User: Fold this.
Amino acid sequence: MLGKLLKYEFKATTRTILPAYLLIAFFTVAGRIATKNPTLNSLLNGSIAGVLMFFYVLAIIMIVALTFFMILQRFYTNLLRDEGYLTHTLPVSVDHHIWTKTITAFVWTVISTIVVTVSLFGLLAEAEDIRILITGMQEVIRAYNEICTIPLPLLIAELVILALISLLSALLNLYAAMGIGQFFNRHKILGSVLAYMGLSFIFSIVFGVFAAVAGVWFDNLAGREYIIHVVLGILSAGVVAQGVLYYFITRYCLGKRLNLE
Amino acid sequence: MSWKFVNDRPIYMQLVEQMQLKILSGEYQAGQKLASVRDLAAEAAVNPNTMQKALAELEKSGLLYSERTTGRFITDDTDKITRIRRVYAEKSVLEFLEQMKGLGFDTEETIRLISGIIREESK
Amino acid sequence: MSAILECRELTKQFSQRLALSKIDLSLERGKIIGLLGPNGSGKSTLIKLANGLLTPTAGEIRIAGMPPGVETKKIVAYLPERTYLSDWMTVGDVLNYFGDFYENFSLEKARDMLDRLGIDIKDRLKTMSKGTKEKVQLILVMSREAELYLLDEPIGGVDPAARDYILNTIITNYNENATVVISTHLIYDIEKVLEEVVFLNEGQVALRMTVDEIREQKGTSVDALFREVFRC
Assistant:
């Protein structure tokens, strides 16, 4: 069932976001041609390039905004509004519904990030820039290896995992907030925003206290390299705990306490 | 195949009466196989269980009979149908005579009225 | 075992009002039952509870002996009063959707009914009138071989010809294992199709009789009785 839900969720979201990706692809290519071609540039006095740049920036902003709002909108309309009458009467568990939305949101966020990054590179980078970048990175790696014995790939992997887990947790944070928001009968959206701020506030305090305590403890361990692993591990655990809590809040709101209109 | 219903009487009773009329008038022929309960109900736009109740009544009165595997049939006992038709007709006549009496016609006048009208009609 | 829907002291309290109060109800299989009552009597609440869209405050509700959940959703076909389909889908998309999630969905039946009503499966829902969308939703529900059909105002927004077609579909769809519950205001039009009626008033069962009993004992139609019972 989860597979089928994912299939339809991707169908619904692709048709929204794909045009934006195509648009940015167009502006990247057009922008590159316009700015990097000297004859064309002088001919049009750089004005067309300027206009294209403007629309390019707009397109980037649009992808970011579109991805974000699409994630919110899918959860809200499909689970908390009229479509919910269909969704919640499917012979599918609430968990599957939450995972469907979370997984697709995760995928699109990652893809959007990649698209924007590739696009920026595609627009601006010269062969020269790439060479400088590579030499620079090699320099950094060499310097790092002199200071630290932890293999860089491992460190990077840990950071990436932390980033991805944080993304999942952030998505579930949004969903939990929307789940809570549905209790504010006439002001669902306002309620969601307040819930989001509330949850963030609570967790930042918890994290703050935690960090303060940890800070004291770490002072004693200062100088040992594996501290990095420990710190990252604890951070990850914290994020996971947060995510799990958000998940259960969402599940409770969409399950026992569901109240469509 | 028209069905007409009134509001204040049970539907199954009205179904029984109207089916009887259809049988007596020959609209449903003796020995004819009836459609399924569902189809009959759909035709009359009534609840299938109500139609079932009506058909059960008609079976009790002997106008219908059912064979487990083949379905329901109008009785092929034409004598029976004739007898019931006669009972109905007699009832209608008695009702009519009551009506005429209520209007102030005695038997003689009623018979003359009937003959007169029939002659007019056949012209 | 034969009861398809059972409510025992079923209660639902919302923050501002008590929608259902200790409802005891048992609906048998193989019936077409009318769930009637004025606005706010608790009809929609009862139907939503049966669908698992709401959770009881107290008491319990069971479908085929099970509490509302994934298993009951497989055998319950629900037609809500509102449009619940995604506008961007075509009728064909929706057919595939239903076929994917419901094992007991009959694609041929749905196609046949859409054909009869002149609805093209390539049409996008966005382009349809409200009445046509309602017909599509009804067809989707009636194409499922469910054990309990919950229809909330199935004939409200459609023209008389379509109304006849819908009632005809309900009759021909009948099977003795399944029950159809119709919640509506238009009693007069569907009275002949109903076998039993349940009157709800202010969250309680006001009356429970068969249509024939009402006509025999009260000498009036269900419609007339309703007007009498719920006179303003």
